[in-house]
Design brief:
Layout: H1 3-26, H2 34-56, H3 62-65, E1 75-85, E2 91-102, E3 107-112, E4 117-128, E5 133-142, E6 154-163, E7 168-176, E8 180-190, H4 197-204
Antiparallel strand pairs: 1-2, 1-8, 2-3, 3-4, 4-5, 5-6, 6-7, 7-8
InterPro entries: Cap15 (IPR041208)
Pfam family, one: Cap15_CD_rec
Keywords: Membrane, Transmembrane, Transmembrane helix
Length: about 210
């Protein structure tokens, strides 16, 4: 959550609390009376439940999303990667899937290829106000060491989201600690979490491997 979002949450909470206090005053309910304290507690509980609902579910509703805009990228993405080893100049081309689990406050990304599985441990989704496009940056690490290859891979990926009426695509670059740089292009294939590479590939190909 960035500073602007925090400020907006504080402002909305303050305005709703102020309106509630004014309503109590206009209905001649004394703030320091037992009834006033109970009402104030009820208002506080309502605001807590409201933000809990909003952060987990409400932000996905188009009209409510305008309160604190955040793009919903949750689901499974599938596409291709192309990378180059800086030292050997060798090119690698393959397919990759991303499973993105998201609520308003948290984001986690798992990537799958035919050989490797990587988990993110630092993620940022932000709206670039100049280009009016969402950008996703995450740092990832290989989940487990391959019995043949003992090197743990780590890297950083930076993607830009492009949206139209029928398609959502990520395109961007990545860098790894093995000395490779590359490009990714992915499209959203499902709002479900397809945790197996072959399952995501099947979905992306319309049921044909």
């Amino acid at each position: 959550m960035d500073k602007e979002e925090q400020q907006r949450i504080v402002l909305i909470t303050f305005i709703l609390s102020l309106i509630s206090v004014l309503v109590l005053l206009f209905t001649n309910i004394r703030l320091l009376s037992i009834h006033g304290v109970k009402t104030a507690f009820s208002i506080s509980t309502f605001l807590t439940l409201w933000w809990a609902f909003y952060f987990h579910f409400g932000w996905k509703i188009p009209r409510l999303n305008k309160i604190l805009y955040k793009e919903n990228i949750s689901g499974t993405w599938f596409g291709t990667y192309e990378s180059v080893d800086i030292k050997s100049n060798k090119t690698y081309i393959g397919e990759i899937s991303l499973v993105i689990k998201q609520n308003f406050l948290n984001l986690h990304i798992t990537s799958y290829t035919e050989r490797y599985k990587n988990n993110s441990y630092s993620e940022i989704l932000s709206l670039d106000k100049r280009s009016e496009k969402n950008k996703l940056v995450y740092v990832y690490s290989q989940e487990e060491v391959n019995t043949i290859d003992q090197f743990i891979r780590k890297g950083t990926t930076e993607l830009e989201l492009t949206l139209n009426e029928s398609r959502a695509e990520f395109y961007g670059k990545f860098w790894t600690n093995t000395g490779t740089i590359g490009q990714l292009r992915l499209r959203n294939v499902s709002k479900e979490y397809l945790e197996f590479f072959e399952e995501a590939k099947l979905k992306a190909n319309g049921g044909v491997l």
